[in-house]
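We modelled the chain as a single entity of 329 amino acids. Its sequence is:
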Amino acid sequence: MLEDLPTAVSSPTAWPAAYPQGYAVVDVETTGLARDDRIISAAVYRLDARGEVEDHWYTMVNPERDPGPVWIHGLTSEALEGAPLFQDIAEEFATRLEGRVLVAHNAVFDWQMIAREYARAQREAPVRQRLCTIALSKELGLPLPNHKLESLAAHFGVVQQRAHHALDDARVLAEAFRPSLAAAAAGGVRLPLHECRPLTEWADRPAPHIGQQGSGYGSYRPSSWRPSRKRPACPYPNPGRYEDGKPLKQGMRIAFSGDTSVERELLEDRAVEAGLHVATSLSRLTSLLVTNDPDSGTSKVVKARQYGTPVVDEAAFGQLLRDVEPADG
């Protein structure tokens, strides 16, 4: 078992009343990054309202399929063969999350993987809000060279012992989150909290057994709360291109390219709800391209490079959606 985290975290006497009452710092390792991939290990560090560690928990999970990039996470088919299925650990996992804000590095990915697993188990994950430590580091203006976990850890002097091991990644993140939370409280910084909407439906299809390769395990059916894909035209004029460091503005034309952690339809719906124009193709009029792989060579990425269209990743776009500027007039 890993050593307990240090208990002393400098924190202001006056703590913001609006801050959450507890946090679940989470890391999950998965068979891949696609929506049909599975969780193969999970870890949770529970923290109280001021970031003091209460306990931690870790489990492996049998994904009932090939474990994916073993060279990254180190979990082989043999290691996972006797591990519990997700439905067997769902209740224990839920007790670790219940009533707390889910904290993760690129939290939208961890949340979506967890939500999908609970949907497969015909349950709901008891999470209502999440906090991304990438977003928090931006709110605090931390001088990081990039937004990798290792950079955040180095900033706070946290030593990584086993990268891509869920328990150690969760420990590292908890150690980095604690001083971040204290700094936010001391500075009266509004925490970048996001609503978590659980998936409510999941349709299974035959899955490859563990040790066998396969392209996927299930498929989504839209949940009842999701708007129709037939959307009315954007009512706002296009104000032009997005400029780095400035907010998005209603009417901007947004295009997406490649895989996303959040289901594409949901991302598009959120953009439309914010008053943006979701474009199916990229042209000289496109304000912004959202892609997690700017070097992919897709037609949209190539055109964006030709036209000089600004490009951001999914995490940055999620932050921009928090504060979209109203259209002129």
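As a brief sanity check on the tokenised model: Confidence is low (pLDDT under 50) at residues 1-8, 205-229. The radius of gyration is 20 Å.
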